[in-house]
Design goal:
Layout (H helix, E strand, L loop, with lengths): L2 H8 L6 H6 L4 E5 L16 E6 L2 E7 L5 E5 L13 E2 L4 E2 L6 E2 L5 E3 L9 H4 L7 E4 L2 E4 L13 E2 H4 L5 E8 L3 H9 L27 H4 L1 E5 L2 E4 H7 L4 E7 L2 E9 L4 E10 L3 E7 L2 E11 L2 E10 L6 H8 L3 E2 L4 E2 L11 H6 L11 H9 L17 H18 L17 E2 L3 E6 L3 H14 L6 H7 L1
Parallel strand pairs: 11-23
Antiparallel strand pairs: 1-10, 2-3, 3-4, 5-6, 6-7, 7-8, 9-10, 12-20, 13-14, 15-16, 16-17, 17-18, 17-24, 18-19, 19-20, 21-22
Helix pairs in contact: 5-10
Amino acid sequence: MNADQNALLTRSGPGTACGALLRSYWQPAALVDEFNPALDPRMAQRPVKAVRLLGQDLVLFRDATGAWGLLDRDCPHRGADLSFGRAEGDGLRCPFHGWKFDVHGQCLQTPAEPAGSKLCERVRQRSYPVLEKAGVLFAWLGPEGSTPPPLPAFDCFAAPATHSFAFKGLWNANWLQAFEVGIDPVHPSFLHRFLQDEPLEGIGDNAAGKQFRSASAGAIDGEQWPMTRIMREFAQPDISFETRPWGMQLTTLRPMTEELTHVRVTQAIFPATFVIPLSETMTITQMHVPVDDTHTYWYSFFTSFAGPLDKEAMRAQRQQFISLPDYIPKAGRHNQWGFNPEEQRTQTYLGMGEEDINVHDQWAVESMGAIQDRTREHLGTSDKVIMANRRVLLKAIATVQDGGVAPGIADAAQTASMTGPDTVDGIAPAGQWPAWWQAQARAKREGAPWACRDLLAADA
């Protein structure tokens, strides 16, 4: 990849070609939890947050009716920062000269103007549609007056609140390298390699750090194999991908014996989301949204196909590693991501902890630099998914530049065909793995108290 292409794919601010593409999709702007006074006491009196998204400075607030407002942050009077505004129930008032705006950006008052002034009727701050879904506030930053597409009925959006949980974290790097680490099918065999395995008993779906390490991938000759053992012992997978309405379906096969193959099916939802199995009954849908070109928030949706989730426990486990209210990781370049050379020699391949494998991905993403220089890469056969995604991204940027419709979930005409999507991780009969994984996915969905019956009928 040359330098111009690298810049094209990584610049997301206003006026950039990739930024125009990304503005064709709903983007996560904040967790609903960020407005919960129990988690951030400041919100009890003043439900207002400064937000930076795709290189734009915005202010997100909630009025007394519960309506959400997302406005450009610079006051249209003389540019003061509206994130310091006074929350007055029916709107947000700039402390500089008292101009007040409702959630739609309409100016309600200009109190320093002469009596009878109609100035406020002519002033409107740019506002952006906000959609609350699955514990996340999504923003539409497309052209003013444009109609956003509906969100598809993906599992992470269809599951009831009892069976879903959302969390996030900040990485100091560009959005594309964050997404590319996530969709890479090979890296778990190395980056997340544990040199010993954990007992399989007593690890529940809500455990934060040991899910990957202790999850059972299935049995061989009656012996349960931990996921980490499979990743460690079979590190040259057979990777393939298929086009789907939302992006790509990725299949990673690790032949184990003549009779058995480990099968992992994951999904890449264009432009920056992946869906992976966390356990037999839980998936993670992770979105990557540019704060700006050198900072990215990941948003993870945990979806249970079995019982309700203990959200308080899940949040507490993750708060060990990420500080609220700004969701900043405690590990980073400043402390070498917690690197321990003795641990690397005896416990883990990376040497950055056993409890939170998210920091492994953080290191991979951030250690490339704020914006990875892809002109220095030497890609191999195992990088076929990365190369395919970049081709799709380049084509999509060109399509939007030519006035066309962005692909995947930005295309409202495709929404009805996008449900699921399914994932699986387990040991299958070598010659029958395609039917096996579909049966596994169907059984998981049939066991869920909420799952989409229309999807089951379509798969039958």
